[in-house]
Write the structure tokens for this entry.
Amino acid sequence: MSIRPILLHPDPRLKTVAKPVAVIDEAVRRLAKDMLDTMYDAPGIGLAAPQVGVLSRLIVMDCVKDDQEPPRPLVLVNPEILWRSEETAPYEEGCLSIPEHFADVVRPREVEVKWTDLDGHDQQERFAGLWAVCVQHEIDHLNGKLFIDYLGPIKRGVITRKMEKLKRDLARDGHPQKGHEAARL
Ligand code: GNR
Ligand code: NI
């Protein structure tokens, strides 16, 4: 088990376009395993490699909500959106790199995605519901985009300044000071 630290916004690495994975080697398999461990530990429903400081096009997801259902850990190498539904839907999004901040984001309700799995095989699937929200959120991370980039500059600025303060507090004492309650913007 290896949990990697998750980068917090603002960080230049979270704004960088990630590079395609050229070969699936042991390092890529270890990264994927660590990202799943890190995601489940957080806990979160998805994680993109740039969030752990690796600027490669790799994401992991498990959007199974029901504890009764078996988990479905997915690793997507070099994911690409092939098709987006015309129909859109709002969802109140959060991000492990922007903890305690939530805002409605409107995205296509369904997407068709192709990717390479860890065995090097091509995969393709149509995602809907929370899976569609998550896969679009994660692919955005690979393109240096965060959910707050869909908000207006006022809301985005409020969140960014709160995150700058949180990071200062964490750097000083390793824990947030008062005034870091969850915020819905
Ligand atoms: O754990 C997460 N939950 C979530 C909720 C609504 C919309 C998107 C997400 S993804 C997020 C984990 C994360 O930050 N992935 O990049
Ligand atoms: Ni995120």
In short: The chain has one domain: 12-173.
